[in-house]
Task: structure prediction
Amino acid sequence: MSGETSTGVSEASDEPGIEGVRAVDGATLRRFAELVVRFAANVQRGQIVAIGTEPGKLDVTRAIAAAAYRAGAKYVDVTLFDLHVKRARILHADEDTLDYVPPWLGERILALGELRAARIGLTGPVAPGLLNDLDPERAGRDQLPFLRESSQVVNERTTNWTAVPCPTGPWASLVYPDLSAEAALERLWEQVLHICRLDEPDPVEAWRSRQDVLVGVAQRLTERRFDALHFEGPGTDLRVGLLPTSRWISARFETAGGIEHMPNLPSEEVFTTPDPARVDGEVRATKPLVVGGTIVRGLRVRFESGRAVSFEADEGADLLARYAQRDDGACRLGEVALVDGDGRIGPLDTVFYDTLIDENAASHIAIGSAYEFTAGEEDHDAINRSQIHIDFMIGAPDVDVTGVTADGERVPVLRDGAWQI
Result:
């Protein structure tokens, strides 16, 4: 980024900004929105487009809405989730109502699937640590804005969707506490544009080239048919079993109707579904994570026969443990993902406190629901099912990843962040 900023966007743009919020210049914001709409979400003419956002993100929301209409959207539907309202609920609502989810929220997601809509979510904390001081028992019962119907729509591949980072002032100050508010926001925008490859002459071609590499890695991993992966590093000795038909894929998705899209922008991972009954050992998170508005730092988890039986952390362990009690699958793995060192995020050595970005800087695992399309139909009954899906990062250059075959052969997969296959 050139470093030039303005209040809102330029007068020549059709995306009005928010008074008092410093953002990138109008041309850059429009270019970002176009990449999100036309490449990552791949909005088609005549589609309904759903945008999930929060207070503090409306300048980017408006830019994306305008880009969607320019792409031919039939209607843009914006939903706004306010974490301060969630805090009020956790503090004051009756105990037995905290896990209530209004039925129309899930029905809306299913309707978007039935209508073959496009979905765009804006990530990044707008009120970091707002829920940190709350009772984890109460906070763990309210898991909104996550909706279990979202997993159903993803597995049925009825929507083309993407999640993208949206820089805000509070988020920037969390990431860069030593900078002034203005300098921090400028720096965050600079890095977001970099990891989204918007500093390339042709960002779309740059992403296609990167995805070609990751698709090739995914194919080779699938062909090896490893029985398990072994993660080894400081504080980590974890063996993750795989299903016979576990299929590795990159973030080059395709809907049931053939619309190619990129569910995360940026994305540097290849991932699959593990065997939820065969995970054993201890693992140390290599980055903080944000769960329901609470920052979890220094996480350590122990697994036995597939179940997470112990959660310890410097901060936030009780909340994550509460989430893991949500249902029978909440304490088991639904995803294992590998990330190499050639992406744009890891080399920055920045903790973004946004799982979308941080999980693409390092290999990671997720407790909760699995993606059906990462296993063959014959194993669909074996994959993990849950109302939650929470990723946490376990990879680093000093964490080795080894593939283990059914007959015990050990094959290096990642060493010092480099692919070995």
